[in-house]
């Protein structure tokens, strides 16, 4: 088996809800990063075999196979196809997995992988809202098999995050400390210009909008909980956001043929499942699985990106894995930078690659919780 290399990785800055990207058409956001990553590589766009893009709630402007639409909106060759992936929050990390698997199998040589999401235009769970017009209250209602297995337990990310905080005894104070540190790290990275190499300005928008300079423990303490009697607040949750990101994945043959410079190789990729009611705990067994398969430990990993869907997700994962939080989300996470659903996986990998290059680290691990109780894990090796 050959190798799957990352030869390019770029993203837009992340816009906050109703912010700089709110009016941008998702196809144009996707087109922007696709064209940028292909142009930067110097390859003939016609040599690309496929475009795999993640997106959640593919309705409205995100409908109609946004991967294909974004490629065409970029003015690129019509003979190149595209496919849209929905593995919930892990959609664009899965897009990278599918791209790498195509290259590793020898059925493709060059694949653009990434994701796009405009949550300002298409709110989270909008597809379920539309389904309500047809009498469907949620994807699970009416399923005898689901009800026999899980009963009437609520399937909700907020309920799941509360369950995690309770099971792993994560206090509100600890979550707020973690959230405050996420903002501090993100602002430090912005001020130091660490994101500049990975961001392609979109109509002049070039700086992530989410991190808050005025946040404090006192401000967080004054917020109401998301669930009556719970521990979570908006301050310890990921932000609603808009963004797009894209990577170019290449085979060994493509590297030789097109004179490309590999920046990292995909060392490992996998996905695992866990309890869908707890929903957000799968990064724990998924990380253990990836390390077992590779014979590695977290001591071998220089940097980790784990999506901060909610603070207890990361804190419970750290308790179970023994991870050193000094190496985790070193430039902030989704609590500060935002979580544009279908784009987040590619955004995380783009930032992970650039930070490995900046610091000289060798291995980076990325994982994220996903709807249905799932988690992707990717380990990349900087070259």
From TrEMBL:
Pfam families: Thiolase_C, Thiolase_N. Residues 261-382 form the Thiolase C-terminal domain. The active site is at residues 89, 339, 369. InterPro entries: Thiolase, Thiolase-like, Thiolase_C, Thiolase_CS, Thiolase_N. Residues 5-253 form the Thiolase N-terminal domain. Keywords: Acyltransferase, Transferase. It comes from the Bacteria. GO terms for molecular function: acetyl-CoA C-acetyltransferase activity. Its EC number is 2.3.1.9. Belongs to the thiolase-like superfamily. Thiolase family. NCBIfam families: AcCoA-C-Actrans (TIGR01930), PRK07801.1 (NF005865). This is Acetyl-CoA acetyltransferase. It comes from Catenulispora acidiphila (strain DSM 44928 / JCM 14897 / NBRC 102108 / NRRL B-24433 / ID139908).
């Amino acid at each position: 088996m050959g190798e799957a290399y990352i030869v390019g990785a770029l993203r837009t800055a992340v816009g906050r809800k109703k912010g700089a990207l709110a009016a941008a058409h998702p196809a144009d956001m996707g087109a922007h990063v696709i064209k940028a990553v292909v142009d930067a590589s110097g390859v003939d766009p016609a040599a690309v075999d496929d475009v795999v893009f993640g997106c959640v709630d593919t309705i409205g402007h995100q409908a109609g196979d946004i991967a294909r639409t974004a490629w065409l909106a970029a003015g690129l060759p019509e003979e190149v196809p595209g496919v849209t992936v929905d593995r919930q929050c892990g959609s664009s990390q899965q897009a990278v997995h599918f791209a790498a698997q195509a290259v590793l199998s020898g059925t493709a040589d060059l694949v653009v992988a990434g994701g796009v999401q405009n949550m300002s235009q298409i709110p989270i769970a909008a597809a379920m809202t539309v389904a309500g017009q047809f009498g469907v209250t949620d994807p699970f209602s009416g399923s005898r098999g689901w009800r026999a297995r899980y009963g009437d337990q609520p399937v909700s990310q907020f309920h799941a995050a509360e369950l995690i905080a309770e099971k792993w005894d994560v206090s509100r104070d600890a979550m707020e400390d973690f959230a405050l540190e996420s903002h501090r790290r993100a602002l430090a990275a912005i001020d130091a210009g660490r994101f500049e190499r990975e961001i392609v300005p979109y109509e002049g928008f070039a700086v992530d909008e989410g991190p808050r300079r005025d946040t404090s423990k006192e401000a967080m303490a004054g917020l109401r909980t998301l669930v009556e009697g719970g521990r979570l607040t908006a301050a310890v949750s990921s932000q609603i956001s808009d963004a797009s990101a894209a990577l170019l994945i290449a085979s060994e043959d493509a590297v030789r043929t097109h004179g490309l410079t590999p920046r990292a190789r995909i060392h490992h990729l996998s996905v695992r499942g866990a309890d869908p009611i707890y929903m957000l705990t799968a990064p724990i067994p998924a990380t253990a699985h990836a390390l077992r398969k590779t014979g590695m430990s977290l001591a071998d990993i220089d940097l980790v990106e784990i999506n901060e869907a909610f603070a207890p997700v990361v804190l419970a994962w750290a308790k179970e894995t023994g991870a050193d939080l000094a190496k985790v989300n070193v430039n902030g996470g989704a609590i500060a930078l935002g979580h544009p659903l279908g784009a987040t996986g590619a955004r995380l990998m783009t930032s992970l690659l650039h930070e490995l290059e900046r610091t000289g680290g060798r291995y980076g691990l990325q994982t994220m919780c996903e709807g249905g109780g799932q988690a992707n894990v990717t380990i990349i090796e900087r070259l």
